[in-house]
Each structure stands twice: as C-alpha cells, then as structure tokens.
Amino acid sequence: MLTQSKKNVNDERQYHIWLRISQVTLIAILLVVTALFFPKGKMFQFDYDVDQITTETIIAPFDFDILKTEAALEQDRLARESSILPVFIWENTSRDSVNNRLDQIRKNLALWYQAEKDLSAKRDHWQSLTDSLVADSTFYLLQEDSLTVLNIKNDLVERGLVNLGTPRWDHFIEEGPSTRRLINSVKRALLPQYMLGIIGDLPAGQDQVRITMIMRGKESNRNPADFRDITQAWEGVRKVLTSNYLESDPRLLHLAEDVAIAVMIPNLNYSLELTENRKAEARNLVPISVGKVFKNERIVDANTRVTPLIKQKLNSLEKEYIRKGYGQSATNRLMTFMGKILLSAFLLFFFFAYLITYRSQIYNDIKLIVLVGIIIVLTLALAHTIVYKLQWSEFFVPMSIAAMIFTVVFDGRIAFIIMVTLTLLTGIILSNNIPFIVANLFVSSLAIYTVRRLRSRSQILWSILAVTSGYVAVIAVFEMIKFSSWDSVMEHMIFAAANGFLSPLLSYGFLVLIERLFKITTNLTLLELLDFNNKLLSNLAMKAPGTFKHSIDVGNLAMAASEAVGANSLLARVGAYYHDIGKAEKPEYFIENQLRGTNKHEKLSPRLSATVIVAHVKDGIRMANEHKLPSIVADFIPMHHGKTRVEYFYQQALERAKESDSEVNEADFIYPGPRPNTKETGILMIAEAVEAASRSVKNPTPQRIASLMDSIIESRVKAGELNNCPLTFKDLESIKSAMMPVITGSLHARIEYPGQRKKLHIMDDED
Predict the structure, then answer these.
(1) Rounded to two decimals, what is the model's pTM?
(2) Is the dihedral of CA 658, 663, 668, 673 positive or negative?
(3) Residue 766's pLDDT is what?
(4) Confidence class for position 485, pLDDT limits 50, 70, 90
(5) If we measure between CA atoms, which residue out of 421, 404, 406 comes closest to residue 351?
(6) Burial of 186 from C-beta contacts in 10 A (0-12 / 13-18 / 19+)
(7) Domains within the chain, CATH numbers bracketed
(8) pLDDT tens string 96-110
(9) CB–CB of 273/199 below 8 Å?
C-alpha cells in the first residue's frame, strides 16, 4: 500500500513537471511567432511627433530619399491625373453599322408589306368560301399567317421602331410601300452628321473643354463643341428629311423620322479603358520623394523642436529601415528581434497572469492553451496579410471573430481580458494604429456583449448589427477629427461593414470546427442537447415519464439558482435534463415512476434496494459514454448525488439490524461520487434534493418549503458534499431565494373538489 502511494505521488509530480514544461514551451513558441509579424526594421527608434523636442542627435546611417507624405503624394497624383484629357475614338464602323441596320429594316418592311398583302388576300378568300370544311382548313392557315406577320412586326420593334403600332405605319402598309425611297432618304440625311462627327456622352461629373480624339491612329486635342451631340445631330437630320418630304408626303416624313431616331448612334465615343490607363501611367510617373538625405548627414540636433520637414525625414528613415530589413549586422537583427519578443511578452503577461490567478483550470489545460495560441497567431497573421500584403483597410481585420469565439468557448471576462491584450498587440504591429486599437476595443466589447449569453442562433443578427454599427461609429469620429477625404472615409466604411457582416457568420462556423477538433462543449452544443427529440431524453420520457418530469422541474430550479449566482444557467438546465438518464434502465424501482400500490422494493432487502438505486448512476455514465454525451454534461450524473447515502434504505437496514442483532456496512449505501466540483454541479445537487423532497411535504407552505431547503443545504454542507465546488455561503442564500418562487409555484394550491377538505383534515391530523 505504501509503495502504491509513493508511485501515485511520483506520477503526479511527473505530470506537473510535464505540464509546466509544456506551458512554458507553448508560451515561448507563441512569443517567437508573434514577433515574426512585427514590421521589419528598428521599431520606435525615432518616435517623435511634430513640435516635440528631440532628446538625441540623429545622424543618417545611410543614403535615403525624403518621401512625400501620403496626403502630398496623393495631391500630386490627383493633379497629374486631372491633366489627362478624356480619350474619344473616331469609329468609322458606326456609319457602316447604321447603314446595315437600315438595309435590314428595309428588307423587314418589305417582308411585312408582302405578309400583310398575302394575309389580306387569304382573308378575302376565306370569307368567300361556302364549304365549311374548306373554310375551317383555310382559317387555320390564316392563323399561321397572322403569327408570321406578328413575328415580323416584333422584330421591327426590337430594332428600335417603337412606334410601329401607330396609325401612320398601318396606313403606310395599306397604301403600299415606298421603302427604298424611305430608307435612302434616311441614309442621305444621316451622312453629313457622321462626316461632321456625332460625339457620345462626356464622362459623368466632368465638364471638359478639351478632349483627346484618336482618328485613324492619330491623336489631336479638340473642343467637344466642334462636334454634334445626339440632340444636335437629330435636329440636322430632321431638317434634311423635312426638305425632302414636307411638301410631297408629310406622312412619309414622320415615318422617316421614326427610322432615323431608331438607328442613329454616335461615331465619336469615350474610351474609359484608354483614359484610365493614361491616368494610371500619369500617377505612376509622379515622383514619391522631394529630396535626398546622404549618409552621415545630420537630420536633427538634440533638444530641437521637430518640424514637419524633420518629421518627414524621420518617417522616411523608418520606412527605409523596413525596406532594408533588420539592420546592417546580425547583432542588430538579433537585438531587434529580442526586443519584439519582450514587447509581446509584456502584453501577453497581462492575459496569462489573469489566467493563472483567476482561471487556473484553463491555464492547466494544454489543449485550451493551444487553442488560445492558435487564435492569437491566426488573428495576427490575418492583420499582417490584410494591411501589409494586400494593402487593405485595417478595419477589415476580423478581431470580433476572436472576441466571439473566446466568449462562447470560455466566458465574457476571459474574452474581454484577452481582447484587450490582442488588440493592443495587433495595433502595435500595425504601426501604433490608435484608431484601430480604439475601434476594436469598442467593437470587441459589443461582440462579447451580444454573445455572452448565447441562447439562440438568431443572435447572429444582433452581432452583425452591433459589430457593424460599432465600426461605423468609431470610424466616423476619427475621420471627422482628421478631416479625411470622403473617398478615404467610404473605403474604411465599406471594409468595416464587410467585416461586421462576415465576422459573426464565420465565428459560428469556426465554433463548430473548434468543438470537433478540441472536444469543447459550447452553448451551441448545449442548446442542441435541450431538444426533447434527443435519443437519451426521448428514451427517458418513454420509459420513465415520472423521472423525465422530475428532471424538467429540477432544470427549472437549477436554471433560476444559476442565474442568481452568476453560473452557467444553460449548462445547469442541460445537466438537470440528463442527470437521471440511468433510471431508464430500471424505471419501476424509482418512486416517481411507480403506480399506486406497486413497490418492487417491498420484496428486496434494504442493501439490495440500495444497490439498485445506486446503479442508476453507473447506468447513466454508461449510457452517456455510448451516446457520446459531452463530459461537462456527463459529470452531472455522478456528481448530483456525490458521496451521499441512500438514506431511506440505510435507516431501514439499521432498524432490521437491531431486530436481528447484526451489523450494517455503511459503504453499501453510499453513492460512488465524485462530489460536485463546479457551481453548476453543486447547484444541481441542491436542486435535485429539494425537488424530490418537496413532493413528500404535506400541505406545502412557503415556510415549510424554506425549512426543508435549509435542512437539505445544511446537511450537504456538514457532510462536506459542497467542499470541492466554489459556492460560498452567500451563494447558498441566493440559491435558496431564487429557488423559492419556482418550487412554491410548482406546488401551488389546486381547486378544492367535493370531499377534499375532509381528507385534508385527516392528513393534517396524521402529520
């Protein structure tokens, strides 16, 4: 026995050593990986703002260009871009295309005329027929010809003759076509307009006085007023047509106008692609620097006020450091990298100190530390990629995904602490981005708030609204302070809105993956376990309906008590639903499932009865394992009784032992345990005992129920059943207060039936 005890001690000591080594190793890896995401170069070496006083003389360590500020560079690029004239291309094919369309219209008009003529002749023939059979056959042919005419008219409408149904077109068909004259007149009217040039629309929002025209490969700067727009060209066409038709055939004039306006298109068109390419080339030709600083040149003396020009030189020096890498020597590179590791360590110490002090069970769980590390690394990797690689807005970094995952997997307190740490770390990596830090501290708090009590998947909508609104609000404030351009504000807003919409959706998807990979039970899984169609619950309801009802009532008590002391009320309810699933194996041996007058324990000895009762715990654990019930829920099965006695049968055994002068082995009547080790399991132990005992109270009153609860809680405390769970005496008082309205409500008075009062008096006398 002594040897076995020493072995257990050694095993425990080795486990603790392995645990500490694993923790230190994981944290060290996290620090090294985190440091890799910092921008290259010496960070914060010359971190001065305008009007600050320098504390050292700064000498240029190498040649570098003085880069323009982002605002100045963009202003120069816009100025160069605005000098690019819109490019218009003279398209000779436009006139040919119009002529082809006119020829096709002439053919279709001729087809229409001929089809109408044939249809009219057949209609006259049909009306003259006297033979009904021949008339019916001819009628079907008329229908086919009518459909042909309709198709021809529809084709003309699609080609732009939108007024085809007007009386003048029908009159034109009735009197006979002059299509060749009609179409040739339109061609002659359009010819001078295309020779002068019909210009298309100018770029939206621009009032250009000059354009670049490309005609047969040659470019020239022209005034748009040198050409005719569609309206002016149409007036010219109308005048030519009027001179041709006004006196001879006014009706044909209107028909020609219909055709002309349907086919006329510009032949001098704006080329967006060429214009944008030329603007892009112009932007690229703008120099990004305004001067040069040479090696060993003094940038600024010590104790000197930093001017905008000096600040510009310092920023340029920092960017050149980043471009060159870590420095000029291996020692400098190593020192810089060690500094980044230490900076990461200072920030992460805040979070890990909190875990060690207040959440040691998480700190001592390696898989949870790995999960935390993975989320931190992935978040930093995304931030580095989005900002430095893709050059997108920093507000697209999905920080709220980490906030929601930490909240659901752990709790709101841990999520808040780690998000403060992670946001500061990410903000520093993104070049001390204060707007990013403020925005994500605010948005992360909103995200944590929306999912802190996850009870339905519909909360994702509130998360989307909260995250998006938070980003928009903070961005608006900072952009107002900085007087940023409207384009810059809109860019940040669009990225933030996309972030707010996608982050909650992705969070819920990642939670499913995390649950599977790390065997973690979140509130999402607990919500699924509340479904009464679950195989374990439906089996319990069918085989042991009394126990099922008891479990539901216990769940109500446990949920109310958990909310009163800040425990996980959803977990407490789920644990209550499943704590007695083992009773489905032998339901008839438990009083809540027995019919009146039937009690199988009457034929059993007290010890055997206790064995059957205790067995429901082992049966429940077996069933939980078979159905892969999460361990956090399965723990409620043995812990709701802890190491208490099956008191009824134990007392019965003692009475029989006195009569037979024998001894009773108390161990035969003790549940195997373990005792409750969380607030939720401790609450369930009390709730289960209170609910079961309250059913045996005759004439229940609030005073009797309160007295019963006091005795149950006192007995559990004295027996040490609650020693391992973090419930305080104040919590026990809160639990009692929370349970009272629930238990009294479930035992409320019923309508008194005839003869019931006499029975109640008899029961009171017996009491």
Answers:
(1) 0.58
(2) positive
(3) 40
(4) low
(5) 421
(6) buried
(7) 18-40+331-520 (1.10.1760), 87-276 (no CATH), 533-766 (1.10.3210)
(8) 888 888 888 788 777
(9) no
